[in-house]
Amino acid sequence: MDYQELAKRIEGFQTVFSVVKTLNINNRTAINYLHELKKRGYLKVSRGRNKIRMYYIKPFIKPKGGYPSMYNIINKYSKVKLTPRYNYISHYQISIEEALIQALNSQDFRTILASLGLFNYVNWSKLYKLAKKEKIARNVGVLYDLIRKIIKIKKMDKRTRNVLLRSEGKKYIIKEFKLKSKDFGDLEKIWKVFIPFNKEDLAVYKE
Amino acid sequence: MINFEQQLELFKFIGENIEDKVECLVIGGSAMMFYGAKTETKDVDLIFMKSSDLKKVKLILEKSGYEEKTLNIFKRYTLVKKDIYKPIWMQNKDTRIDLFFKKVICFWITENILNRIKEVHEFKNLIIKVISPEDIILLKCATEREKDRIDAFALTKTFNINWNIIIKESLEQTKLGESIFPVFLYDFLLELKEDLKAEIPSNVLKELLKISEKELEKKLRK
């Protein structure tokens, strides 16, 4: 017996009597069907007028799935974890590089901070292409140099570094607050990008 | 009618074909499908907070065979030329998509509604935010359609509705527009409770009745 198909046939509000009538079956069978539907999560019981049992049948159980979102990727690879405000569901597969770029575009202080942990796992050629498209290649470069000062990170090759230095970038990593760093002025000068983090912010990576 | 799978395909198509990131809210039956409270809907309703985002999605839809049409209920908007809040109705053979900018007929998307969003779906460049069940009920209360009552009942069965949120938002909407939302809401909830035996606390209805009377008095004094 395909119970989803059955749920589709009798979708909506039903009583035992209406199920008997719709499916042309006897009372006992209708009750058995309703019991099976309830067991499978297709049915909810309520009371209608005159305390009649009413069955709300939906041939649908909330779909789960999708691919790991930016938050899932950051939480998997980075030492700094995030609890997103929303239940975030991605319907297409994103790479670590895309997650890093999305984090930068989120313009959220904590998301960007947590995404720094992804630099150990990136493919630089992919990351450069994405950053160039978003016009934030220098921002990516400065954040790489920044996290490299704090934790051990895979080295970026010189060619990529030079390309990144010559690329476009935005003056502020978080545009809204125009934050500048007290501790990383040297990096800000090299990359011509203001960093929103101070040493204390990055201490979480050392814990 | 459009089912959940078709809706996902539609959003994937838009997300893959649009060049920049676009954000919108999904309401009504489409939002209910994301919550698993409905299997299919008559139309897909999207609300944009940026007019540029709306234009981009409209362009993609036009390129894929959708045509802009005028719906009877939107006619009053056509009286005012260049009304930026005029809803756009896109139709192809079997699917209808309604595009709104910042408000749905007389219902404004407030900061509180945005803060109540709990579920976000990402389709490459299309970000879909699903409004809360409380806001879906509030949006449905201003219509006269029987289906909307059944939808609202399904929501009350599926979720633990925070009725205070609904009452507060109805007052907020009354301040913003011309319609007296608490009155619509009271009638709507009363019908749900009496006809469909929805579990709506009596004190919620009593409070709404008081608020409705006050708001009506205010309106009459004006």
Descriptive overview:
The complex is a heterodimer of chains A (207) and B (222). Chain A is elongated, with a radius of gyration of 27 Å. Chain A has helices at 3-9, 16-23, 27-39, 70-77, 96-106, 109-115, 124-134, 137-150, 158-166, 185-191, 199-202, and strands at residues 12-14, 43-47, 53-57, 87-90. Chain A is mainly α and 207 residues long. In chain A, strand 2 (43-47) and strand 3 (53-57) form a beta hairpin. Chain A has two domains: 3-57, Winged helix-like DNA-binding domain superfamily/Winged helix DNA-binding domain (Arc Repressor Mutant, subunit A); 70-205, no CATH class. In chain A, strands 1-3-2 form a three-stranded antiparallel β-sheet. Chain A starts with a helix and ends in a 5-residue tail after the last helix. By secondary structure, chain B is an alpha+beta fold. Helix content of chain B is 52%, strand content 19%. Chain B contains ten helices and eleven strands. Chain B has a seven-stranded mixed β-sheet with strand order 5-6-7-4-2-11-10. Chain B has a two-stranded antiparallel sheet with strand order 1-3. The longest helix of chain B is centred in the C-terminal third of the chain and has 20 residues, at 202-221. The radius of gyration of chain B is 18 Å and the shape is globular. The model of chain B has no long low-confidence stretch (mean pLDDT 87). The chains are: A mainly alpha (207), B alpha+beta (222). At the A-B interface, strand 2 and strand 4 of A face helix 1, strand 10 and helix 7 of B.
